[in-house]
Amino acid sequence: MLPEIMEQASTEIQAPNPNPSRTLNDLPDEILIQILSLIPTLEAIHNSLVSRQWRSLWSRLPFLDFSYHLFPVNDAEPLPVTSHRFAEFVDRALILRPNSPIKTFRLSFIFYYYYTSHVDSWVRSAVTRFRAREVDLDFFIDKEYHLRSEEDRAPRDKYDFPFSVLRNGCVESLRLTYVDLALPASMATVGMSSVRSMFLEDVDLTDQMWERLILGCPNLEYLELRNGGVDQNLRICSKSLKKLKFGYFYDCYYKNSVEIDCPNLVSLSFDCISFTQFRLKNAPSLVEFHLNMVHLDKYYDCWSKAVKLLGSAPNVKCANVQNWWFKLLTSKDSFPKTFTLHNLSLLELRTGYTQYDLVGMAAVLELCPNLETMILDYLRKIEVDESLPEEILNKPVRFNMPRLKQVKMLKFFGSEDENNFVTLLKKQGLVLQKITLFPIKVEGNSCHQYPPIVLRRNP
């Protein structure tokens, strides 16, 4: 705690100083504010009480951070009682704070429907009184708070975030977790022009509401959607959007599609998703593509559909995917013959180094004639490799890498498969300049990282 730090610091300062009365109170307010800025608002207020000189400092901090999980609790106290005390604390803190602008308003809270007026007031204060540029509301925190108990039988509702309040503020970054959105009917015409970045997790909207939300933010540049709900066809259409991320849309399997029409989109990322159809329209600016799926055979179909989006993005230069590429040779769902990653210069590939993996690596290298850098990260497999046809298994692996100059092998364990792969690279890399290995050793529950080993081509 800060009082203990203050006591220690005071002792250290007093020892060499001829003035025995010198303390932290002699430091400029700007430095004291920097110290208080390192801790949440609750602790900042508590520590401000140690000195009369400090009492107003917390109200000059450039942020307000009300973290429910840091609030002192009594183990025997039911969750609703803790929530009530927390709400009273936030109410009081906001009343006492002057109306000066802040950069960030952050709140984590276990919401019950009867706190709606409280939270509405907090949000209005953050947006209109304090002119916060960043607003972060988390009403989930952790699953342990959502386990029901005998003492906690009140309904756990989602908070209806009043999106229209943003009209009266200058919020640039909005993060919302476990909420419903109350969108104004005139969303598309009025617009929230200040919002440039939006993160939404556990937010369920109809397809029409998703479209209204995006159209209502004409300057939105960053959008991340995690674990959200979709009716049937999620359509992301924006002329301003530059970075788009999807994460954990598992419930979409067998029924939902996503269509992306963003002409200025630079980066597109999918992490653990299960849409049945993917459509990418008008993506001339897309240069970064990331795809991560649980490495189970049942998800390959979704993986292949997402990867095929690259056929509609000819200017992609950097791609991060896992190694399922051997299926290009064995799957009935073949890729178009015209499919190629002609402009790809950097490939980050999550892979193993078995024969199965090397065949896949050779397949993707055939599609990347201008690849210059390849970064390989270890892929932990859940299922065993499927059997390869004999004609593929017995055929020597040949890597086509006419422009590949650099390979990095992250998490290098030194296995026989890894060493065989390095030997292949050295033999077949015509212009390969260096291979960098990042050795790692696992002992029990500990993991040791060793200095990189650089293998260079002999002059």
From TrEMBL:
PROSITE patterns in the record: FBOX
Classification via InterPro entries: At1g61320/At1g61330-like (IPR053772), F-box-like_dom_sf (IPR036047), F-box_AtFBL13-like (IPR053781), F-box_dom (IPR001810), LRR_At1g61320_AtMIF1 (IPR055357), LRR_dom_sf (IPR032675)
SMART domains tied to this protein: FBOX
Domain F-box as annotated: residue spans: 21-71
PANTHER family for this protein: F-BOX DOMAIN-CONTAINING PROTEIN, OS02G0105600 PROTEIN
Name assigned to this protein: Putative F-box domain, leucine-rich repeat domain, L domain-containing protein
